[in-house]
């Protein structure tokens, strides 16, 4: 069992990182340095370089692959998965591992500055110091420029691993200084297999979760293990199929916001309580005891971070709803065009077929465009209620046209 064994559907990317780790572990000339710029020295398939970019769609396993690579560099056995080094990497507590994983909307410039400072230190127990930035696309241009300076002149034993959905999400100057490894979307079967192995669910439920999560591994796990999450998703699709007027659209938008809020609360509430309890324990405050005035600032900082996380969780919840709606109308279009591909929402294939038969492809494409517009508007900080209302007005019109066609 190694750190690579629990990754799924990314054999080509795994081979690149394994070869690089093996190359880094091989004896070499002490005067040699890591490749610092691909423009200066083209990357050999097995070469080791000081900075990497892992790109791929959400749920493809970007961060999991980054930490597996970190384990392979920090572990004396190349990532055995069982030694103290590998366990510390898994717990994000290894002394030679620095992690920036924001749960807010953006990564702040101060966070990157602290990370850059930490990257300058020599490794304490391993051959390398590894720095992982999850969601590197959440850096503003000014923040990215701080990171750029560190990538231009890295310490010899520091390795950076950035994760982002695509290369286009980073500045060209950042992209020119990293070696990019692209991940593919795992197959439904691959995701179902890992859900069955990790969560012990039956094959039917695992396959349904993998389909409805559209191969997003984390979401597939949640749908397979959380009945409430499955019910909230089903409620979203039922609502879209039922709106037929502007009034329905307004009420439906409010309902979708409630669903997204409930989903976000379910994800963050338990974690917030655990974090607060852990913080109080570390400060020596007994359960039920009042927080001393001198410590209230630290608790207030934790609460502020949790509020920012809740804001991002709500936005992510809205995006999940819009992704589910997009999958519904994608399925409708697939049926209308007679394409022989797997439906995402196989569980409601009857409703999909009815809607497809009553509508036209052009109308369905209009709804898909409306869903995409809503996603862009929410990402641009348009009030979510307004973005959802505008989208559902288009959905309502499509449903009315379908109903008239059936009646005639």
For CATH, the homologous superfamily of the largest domain is named as P-loop containing nucleotide triphosphate hydrolases
Query: Major beta sheet, specifics?
Result: 5 strands, parallel
The CATH architecture of the largest domain comes to 3-Layer(aba) Sandwich
Fraction of helical residues = 55-70%
Tally of DSSP helical segments: 15
* CATH class term of the largest domain: Alpha Beta
Taken from the alpha-carbon principal axes, the silhouette is globular
Structure classification: alpha/beta
Radius of gyration, Cα only, in angstroms?
Answer: 24 Å
* Strand portion: 5-15%
Task: Give structural attributes.
single chain, five-stranded parallel β-sheet, 15 helices, 408 residues, alpha/beta, Rossmann fold, 59% helix, 5 strands
């Amino acid at each position: 069992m190694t750190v690579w064994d629990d990754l799924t559907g990314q054999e080509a990317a795994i081979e690149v990182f394994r070869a690089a780790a093996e190359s880094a572990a091989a004896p070499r000339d002490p005067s040699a340095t890591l490749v610092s710029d691909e423009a200066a020295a083209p990357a050999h398939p097995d070469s080791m370089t000081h900075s990497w970019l892992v790109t791929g769609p959400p749920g493809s396993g970007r961060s999991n692959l980054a930490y597996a690579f970190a384990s392979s560099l920090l572990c004396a056995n190349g990532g055995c998965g069982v030694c103290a080094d590998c366990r510390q990497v898994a717990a994000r507590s290894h002394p030679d591992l620095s992690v920036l994983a924001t749960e807010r909307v953006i990564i702040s410039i101060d966070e990157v500055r602290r990370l850059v400072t930490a990257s300058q230190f020599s490794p304490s127990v391993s051959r390398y110091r590894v720095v992982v930035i999850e969601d590197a696309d959440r850096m503003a241009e000014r923040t990215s420029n701080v990171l750029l300076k560190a990538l231009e002149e890295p310490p010899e034993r520091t390795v950076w691993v950035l994760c982002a959905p695509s290369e286009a999400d980073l500045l060209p100057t950042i992209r020119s200084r990293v070696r990019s490894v692209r991940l593919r979307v795992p197959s439904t079967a691959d995701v179902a297999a890992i859900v069955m192995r990790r969560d012990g669910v039956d094959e039917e439920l695992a396959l349904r979760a993998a389909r409805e999560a559209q191969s997003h591994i984390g979401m597939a796990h949640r749908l397979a293990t959380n009945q409430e999450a499955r019910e909230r998703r089903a409620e979203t699709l039922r609502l879209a199929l039922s709106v037929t007027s502007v009034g329905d659209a307004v009420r439906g938008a409010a309902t979708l916001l409630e669903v997204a809020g409930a989903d976000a609360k379910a994800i963050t509430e338990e974690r917030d309580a655990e974090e607060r309890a852990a913080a109080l324990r570390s400060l020596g405050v007994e359960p039920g005891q009042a927080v001393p005035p001198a410590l209230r600032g630290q608790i207030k900082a934790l609460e502020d971070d949790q509020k920012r996380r809740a804001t991002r969780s709500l936005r992510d919840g809205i995006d999940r709803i819009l992704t589910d709606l997009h999958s519904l109308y994608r399925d409708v279009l697939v049926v209308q065009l007679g394409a022989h591909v797997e439906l995402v929402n196989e569980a409601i294939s009857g409703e999909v077929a009815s809607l497809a038969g009553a509508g036209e492809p052009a109308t369905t494409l209009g709804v898909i465009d409306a869903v995409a517009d809503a996603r862009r508007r929410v990402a641009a900080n348009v009030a979510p209620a307004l973005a959802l209302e505008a989208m559902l007005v288009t959905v309502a019109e499509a449903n009315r046209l379908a109903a008239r066609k059936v009646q005639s």
